[in-house]
Amino acid sequence: MVITSLDNPVVKLTMSLKQKKYRQQLKKYTIEGIKLVEEALKSNAPVEYILTVDEKTYYSGIKTYVVSEKVLSKLSEVESPQGIMAVVNMEEHGLNDIIKGENNLIVVLDGLQDPGNIGTIIRTADAMGVSGIIAVKGTGDIYNSKAIRASMGSIFHIPVVYIDDLLSAYDFLKKRGIRVIATSLNGDMYPYDINFMNSAVVFGNEGNGISSISESQADHLVKIPMVGLAESLNVAASAAVILYEALRQRKKGGLCGERKA
């Protein structure tokens, strides 16, 4: 049966997830497009159900609803819908979930707002072998549709922990020997001067940078050397530069294997 009404309960629930407050209340979010849906299933993400315009679509063990193109276009948040989307349950993680042995690489998002930046950093963190991400209160919604698309599926690969108390989070990390390295235009060290073994790297707000708490708690303040006229780099570009240096050091130290299949 093809669902054609916007008043259908499944359609209404899915529609509500366009708003952050309902995503937070229901602990669910939407993903769109065949690549993201298949990556979610491949990664064993907790997909609750799939919506598709193709009556032949079938995924074993996943509830699937066939909807009209008109309904899907109303639910979609992209200009050219691919005819498939899914609702996924959020996975809740604690700080212990992102500790992997005695030599960790963790990313802290300290007040970032742009969903494109957030998603891109999640994707970069995944590629560079980061074990987990800490999102500080005040950071934008990682389940925003633009952030999800920018992550290119990496949202399903890496745990994200939301925290309200930043001081307590830093205390937790430092008790486990994890050094805090914060990015700052006031930094007095370059990435290649810092030992990134067992560290948490902090990236701040696009306009204001890191918080005063992060600055005071940082073991090192790092900045990227530049010789051109640009005052700074986009935060997502900065993350790629710094996390690549961390990966280089970790591979040299034998802590990272080859790319996963």
UniProtKB/TrEMBL annotation:
GO molecular function: RNA binding; RNA methyltransferase activity
Residues of the RNA 2-O ribose methyltransferase substrate binding domain: 30-94
Gene Ontology BP annotations: methylation; RNA processing
One Pfam family here: MRM3-like_sub_bind
Residues spanning the membrane: none
Annotated GO CC locations: cytoplasm
Keywords: Methyltransferase, Transferase
Superkingdom field: Bacteria
CDD domains membership: SpoU-like_rRNA-MTase
Stated family: Belongs to the class IV-like SAM-binding methyltransferase superfamily. RNA methyltransferase TrmH family.
Name of the protein in question: RNA methyltransferase, TrmH family
UniProt organism field: Caldanaerobius fijiensis DSM 17918
